[in-house]
Amino acid sequence: xxxxxxxxxxxxxxxxxxxxxxxxxxxxxxxxxxxxxxxxxxxxxxxxxxxxxxxxxxxxxxxxxxxxxxxxxxxxxxxxxxxxxxxxxxxxxxxxxxxxxxxxxxxxxxxxxxxxxxxxxxxxxxxxxxxxxxxxxxxxxxxxxxxxxxxxxxxxxxxxxxxxx
Length: 165
Fold this sequence. Notes:
Number of helices: 6
Largest sheet: 7 strands, mixed
Radius of gyration: 15 Å
Structural class: alpha/beta
Strand content: 15-25%
Strand order of the largest sheet: 6-5-4-1-2-3-7
Helix content: 25-40%
Distance between the termini: 33 Å
Number of strands: 7
Shape: globular
């Protein structure tokens, strides 16, 4: 367990550098992958076209977005603009990796970064952003329910989400 995403940063980046698959469940994802100086974006170019990336972002039109914006003291308009900016920036990665971006509509609970068989999980709650949450490293093991449960949840959210990229 890490006190927050910042303390797990180096290990997350290390896992992503060697990964073949990267899944991200976030609200807007700008600090994770959307901006040039985000935590993961620079590490994608080193992977070549062998990396498969799926990013799930909160739908800027969903009622849950206004609720999430209120929870963090931000306007819904600003949060929605951030999601749209992230989508535009992620679209630019199409030449670097195999990328899929989706919009989901439910109130975000979990922030997930999965690099192959290693997952980093934090939570969203009223008053704090996902990167401020304690971050747990969850490894895939033969009998471990957490990795399987979070992966199943990711797949379910992706399955009901709208693909935009």
